[in-house]
Design a protein that fits this description.
Blueprint: H1 2-30, H2 33-43, H3 69-72, H4 74-87, E1 89-93, H5 100-105, E2 121-126, H6 131-139, H7 145-153, E3 165-171, H8 178-200, E4 204-210, E5 221-222, H9 231-250, H10 278-289
Parallel strand pairs: 1-2, 2-3, 3-4
Antiparallel strand pairs: 4-5
Helix pairs in contact: 2-4, 6-8, 7-8, 8-9
Length: about 290
């Protein structure tokens, strides 16, 4: 029975492919491109593939038969895939970070079109409970994780659409005290140079941070303005914060000198006494808690 069902399925698929080919060829030959694009837009869901499944090898949904040349021919498939990518809202997190470059630069249906040519929205979410963060906290970076992530994220620099928007979210929830600062520092070491290269290519981006401090003013805080600084200035700030986090990791908490700087804590374990100047403290306080 199963063999007969499989044979019937192949036969019906063969007839369906013939019908689809004939329809797609007639459609492509008689309908102007601007109208075809509107039709492709109706065939594409409003936001295909929000989250990229772990180790997924292509951005094309296997159910989207309009994207496959064997059903509709190469011309129809190529135009459909272009609109498919334009409407896609793509979300990566660190569980699939290793696939970003391959997914963004692979011609999945061998039609001369890659996602970076047409994508308009891409989000990268660094989640607070990720193995990537814990590995960096305890071991430095002996396995070159930052370099590997930089290589993957560099593929975003190839986005061609002028209206493309890249969003980065740094989720510090799941960490307490100075661990939040260490995780923030590691991500700024990764994003600092990368996003300055985005600016050089006139790519639009936003960076948000989420922390769990009870004093926080907003849920997600926009810290994109950090990249208004020159790269050297930004990395100098990050270096100061990195040094501060390392002090907290290796030295017991000190009693602050109340005669010098005010002592409101960003969170338990990190006050102004640990910083070389109040400007560095105030800037970091604003990142983690919002404007005071």
């Amino acid at each position: 029975m199963r063999a007969r069902a499989a044979k019937l399925g192949k036969t019906l698929t063969s007839f369906a492919q013939d019908d689809c080919h004939n329809f797609a060829a007639a459609f492509h030959a008689t309908v102007p491109r601007e109208i075809r694009d509107q039709v492709y837009g109706f065939l594409v869901s409003s936001s295909p593939l929000l989250d990229v499944p772990y180790r997924k090898s292509t951005l094309i949904d296997e159910r989207a038969k309009w994207a496959f040349p064997e059903f509709v021919g190469p011309q129809f498939a190529r135009e459909f895939v272009q609109i498919y990518y334009e409407k896609m809202k793509l979300v990566f997190d660190e569980s699939n970070m290793e696939n970003i470059r391959a997914l963004l630069t692979t011609d999945a249906i061998d039609c001369g079109t890659v996602p970076t040519d047409h994508l308009r929205f891409c989000e990268v979410w660094f989640k607070g409970d990720c193995v990537f963060n814990y590995a960096l906290l305890d071991t430095g970076d002996p396995h070159g994780i930052l370099a590997k992530h930089t290589y993957q994220l560099d593929a975003l620099l190839d986005l061609k659409q002028g209206s493309a928007q890249i969003t980065f979210k740094i989720d510090l929830c799941g960490y307490i005290d100075y661990y939040s600062l260490r995780v923030l520092v590691h991500h700024l070491l990764l994003l600092g140079p990368l996003l300055h290269r985005c600016k050089e290519k006139n790519l639009s981006f936003k960076v948000y941070v989420l922390s769990h401090t009870k004093e926080a003013k907003d849920l997600w805080r926009d810290i994109t303005s950090l990249w208004d600084m020159s790269l050297d200035t930004l990395m100098e700030k990050v270096s100061v914060w990195k040094e501060t986090s390392e002090i907290h990791m290796t030295r017991p908490r000190k009693v602050p000198d109340t005669k010098s700087l005010p002592v409101p804590a960003i969170y338990d374990g990190m006050e102004e006494w640990a910083f070389k100047n109040k400007e560095d403290y105030d800037m970091l306080r604003n990142i983690l808690m919002g404007s005071s």
